[in-house]
Write a structure and sequence with these properties.
330 residues; alpha/beta; Nucleotidyltransferase, domain 5; 10 strands; globular
Amino acid sequence: MEQDQLLLAIDGGQTSTKALLARINGTILGSGLGGPSDHFHIEGGVEKNRRAIVGAIDSVLAATGVAPDQIVAIAFGLTGAPAGSRAYELVKEIVGERLTPGQITVVPDMVSNLAGASGGEAGVVLIAGGGSIGYGITTDGATAVAGGYGYLLGDEGSAFDIGLRAISAATRAADLRAEPTALQAVVKEHFEIERERDLPWVVYRAGFSRERISLLAPKVATAAQAGDIAAIDILRTAGEELALTALGVMRQLFAPGTPVAVYLTGGVFKAGDLLVDPLRTRLQKDWPEAEPRMPRFPPAVGGLILAARSVGIPVDAPWLDRITATLPTT
């Protein structure tokens, strides 16, 4: 029976892997959670992703009590699934340990992120978390990417970029190359050091995680909100850089003057107006028809949209209304 046919979405992240299970009419039945996922090509990446995916599937099946053979389509949005990679075959093998869906869709997480943020519509998504990237799609299916070159080559406006700029501001102030800043105390407390000059002993030590730099970003936002000039400047720069990323996508896809929705997703945007206002200002200057928006749905719902479309289910207003009415609040 049609009502027994189910859709499953898996949203893989470096913190956790989320699952959403829904009827094909858009009614969400429940959610699940697995461990962190990552790129398949890194050492141990396949096994890490296997644990994350299987864990998320087992979690949502246990929460809902449905039979695995009811799932007719599954869609994955994964950080480690670039176009043309072996990710599809690896994911298909992992799914086969638990499920036998007729359709398996595997896309980079930016694709499912935009599908969720826009409710399946055309537009541009800015993703700014530990890294940053822009992705867009037109009504006729053309796509483009800007940024996303990684922490060594880019990721402008990301949490890592903000944290690195905070370290630079602190060290420059300590050397009297710049004015004093509250970020000196923030950086020293964050890395548990007495002097900025001790930073190399921490950062260049074997086993140091770059995430520790990214975790400075919320503290930079707090300092900016308290009025620190250096911190305010860092958030302004981040906002402008993210606007440039969105503009790069739009210039590749749309004719000048075309109205474009730009969805702001990721933890960096929690910094608020001190980052978002410069982004809006730069977009208004270079592309007045661009409209920054908050996402309509989380990325896992984007996965459900992709899963539905893979089996010919129309994602229309009533379908999205049922998603809205049944979406878990946590």
